[in-house]
Every structure is written in structure tokens, then in C-alpha cells.
Design brief:
This protein is an all-alpha fold. Helix content is 75%, strand content 0%.
Length: 305
């Protein structure tokens, strides 16, 4: 996928932080941090459940953004809220459904299936014969993770479906996020979107009884998830985005399913079968191939600046 599909709509001020990190290591650390945040969130599941963990992650991330950038959200007019609410709903749905999937299947496989969403955005409507190759590669990867592949260790079908749902929300997040460009500043978009996402997920978190089970240790872990899965990776991605061509950025971002698999193995003791590793490799290859063959397009961030 191209950089426009990979970009996560972060505030412009993040891109001006005085970080002197080579772009390729910055992007690899960003991906590792993002998946480490997901692994830490999964460790909250026994106490808070996926709904509670999602609510904690989003609410803490929203609080961080509000404290750091202090946007005047109360001054947004009706038209701007109409643009940002679908964006926030997609963000909340993506995070919540991904955490529900993560409760049932390994981290690496959840990210692999979720990646189908942005890959689909990159390929939809394409009439180039080469893009059919990337569709077939991704389809083969998904098939290898399905119950019909004949693998005795086939993953939980509901977990797989929830990961694909997270991918659909990711695709919607990309499409509706692009519509906020020119209507809101990047700070307003990402902060208001995070507030809306919190409002979407928080009722489910409260209904699960997560608030009654919160304690200082769980709160600290939740803040760690917000930093690892939001603030740090998004900042490092902006550092990389300033120095890397969009296609290189997209190809390196395509490694995230493999990074997630390694993080799941290292931090969660999750191991995959040979066919599951092959599925991860096929989806990564499809994503990288789609990026490599894509026509250059301006990113939402750059077009807004």
C-alpha cells in the first residue's frame, strides 16, 4: 500500500519534535513499539477484559493528546464535527474489534488479518494486471489462516472474523480520515477523533465492570499502552516520513505483521505453525508489492500542510 494508506494522521507538531533518529530505525522502532503496546494491552485482559483494555488505552491516549496540544475542540462547528465523528467511530471500532480478536488469536495473526483492510483500500478499483498478483497473495494468506485450509491448528474463526472486522474499520478510518483534510487541522482531527473513539468504546468498558477493577498498577499499565501504542510510534513515524520516500515508508510499514508475530513470540509466548508463518509472509509480500507498484499519491498530511 502507498503512504497515504499507511499514514495514521498524526498532529503536525509531532513531526517537528527535535528527534535525531535515522528514519529506517525510527520506523522499525515505531512498529515494534506499536505491537509491544498491543502485547501489554493483552496482559490487561485477565483483569479488565478487551473492552476495558480498549477503553483504558483510548481514554488515556485522548487525555495525553488533550494535555499536550490543548486544542479548542469546543470551537469546532457542526460541519467539522460531522467530518470528525465518523473518523472517531472508525478509530474506536478498529481498536475495540482488534482487542476482541486479540483475546482469541495470536497477536501476529490478528495484525496479519487486520492488514487486509488497508491493503484492500490500496488495491480497490485497480485495473493493473500486476495488482491481481497482490490480491492473490493476500487471498492465499487468508486462506491458510482459515478453517478450510485443513490445518489442525486453525485459528479461532470468531477471532479471525473480528480481526477482519478491525481491518474493515481500518479501511473506513483511512477513507473518512482523508475527508477531514482541509476541514480540520491535524491536531484537531487526531484529538477530536480520539475523544470520539473513547466515547464509542467507553460504554462497553464500563458495562464490563472494568472501572470497579481498576487499581494503580492497572492504570500505570494502561498509560504504558497509550504511550507505546499511540504517542511513541506515531511520533517516530512522522520522523521517518520526513526523510523516507513514500514507497519506502509503505514497504517498511508492510513488515508490521512480521514484527507483531515476533513481538507475540517474545512477549506473549505465542508461536505459529509453518503454514501460519507462510500466511504472514504472503500478506506482508502482498502489501509490499502493492506499495512498490502503486502510482505515487500525495499523503493526507502533506496535502493539508
Amino acid at each position: 500500500m502507498d503512504e497515504a494508506e499507511c499514514h495514521r494522521y498524526v498532529p503536525a507538531r509531532m513531526s517537528t519534535l527535535p528527534l535525531r533518529i535515522p528514519p529506517v530505525p525510527a520506523l522499525i522502532v515505531a512498529g515494534t513499539s506499536l505491537q509491544a503496546g498491543a502485547a501489554l494491552a493483552k496482559q490487561l485482559f485477565p483483569a479488565l477484559g478487551p473492552a476495558g483494555a480498549s477503553g483504558v488505552r483510548l481514554s488515556f491516549a485522548a487525555a495525553l493528546l488533550l494535555a499536550l496540544f490543548r486544542p479548542r475542540l469546543w470551537r469546532l462547528g457542526t460541519a467539522k464535527w460531522r467530518a470528525v465523528i465518523p473518523y472517531g467511530v472508525a478509530l474506536g471500532g478498529m481498536n475495540f474489534s482488534f482487542y476482541l480478536a486479540l483475546e482469541r488469536i495470536p497477536l501476529g495473526l490478528a495484525v496479519t488479518l487486520e492488514f487486509v483492510g488497508p491493503l484492500g483500500v490500496a488495491l480497490v478499483g485497480s485495473r493493473r494486471p500486476m495488482d491481481l498478483v497482490w490480491v492473490l497473495l493476500a487471498g492465499a494468506g487468508i486462506f491458510l489462516l482459515s478453517p478450510w485450509a485443513g490445518d489442525a491448528s486453525a485459528i479461532d474463526p470468531l477471532g479471525a472474523g473480528l480481526a477482519l472486522l478491525a481491518g474493515a474499520f481500518w479501511a473506513a478510518y483511512i477513507l473518512v480520515g482523508a475527508r477531514t483534510v482541509g476541514k480540520l487541522t491535524e491536531v484537531e482531527s487526531v484529538t477530536a477523533g480520539m475523544v470520539v473513539a473513547t466515547a464509542v468504546v467507553l460504554p462497553f468498558a464500563l458495562a464490563s465492570g472494568a472501572a470497579a477493577r481498576m487499581n494503580p498498577t492497572l492504570a500505570a499499565m494502561g498509560m504504558g499502552v497509550a504511550v507505546l501504542a499511540s504517542a511513541l510510534p506515531y511520533t517516530l513515524e512522522m520522523v521517518a516520513l520526513q526523510a523516507l520516500p513514500p514507497r519506502v515508508f509503505g514497504i517498511l510499514t508492510s513488515l508490521e505483521p512480521a514484527i507483531a508475530t515476533l513481538v507475540g513470540w517474545a512477549l506473549l509466548d505465542e508461536s505459529l505453525t509453518a503454514s501460519q508463518w507462510l500466511a504472514v509472509g504472503l500478506v506482508c509480500s502482498a502489501s509490499a508489492g502493492a506499495t512498490l507498484s502503486a502510482r505515487p499519491t500525495p499523503s493526507p498530511a502533506s496535502s493539508a500542510s
